[in-house]
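User: My instructor asked us to take a sequence, write out its structure as tokens, and then describe one feature of it. I'm not sure where to start. Here is the sequence I was given:
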Amino acid sequence: MSGRDIRVYAVDQIPVDGETGGFLAKAGEVISEAVKYAVVVGQLTLAGAKLAMLSDTVRSTYRYIERCSRGVDRLAEQMAHLKVDVDTVAEHHDAAAVMRGCLADAEAMANTIDEMSIDFGQAAADHQAEYGSVAEAADNMPVQMAEAEFYSNR
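Assistant: Let's start with the prediction itself. The structure tokens for your sequence are:
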């Protein structure tokens, strides 16, 4: 052993005043920024995909409720032919009308979700278009990258 002290540090405890410590801290910042970029793009893309699936689920539920309302109306008509009391028949028709009343709201919700899905996809594409070349250049730099604040435009 050379008589020098050997110290082990956690990444967040690396002394930044030494040459090696400073280099590692800056490398960690670069990696952190690259990860943030990839995470943002990934999360925007994933959110768009999940919203598209949600829209499909809403529309599927919409079709189910529509079928149920037709079935309840048919049932009410059958009851009327069987001379079931008028109030019971009317309540079944009312229930079917309530079901149909929800359909317009469900369709509007599905359309809004579709628009949000498109917006999230566009936000991911815009983020890639605006910052993708910067992230790629940073990843492929032959020299040490400057501190992230240097590149900030916000």
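For the description part of your assignment, you could build on this observation: The helical segments are 19-81, 86-139, 148-151. Try explaining in your own words what that tells you about the chain.
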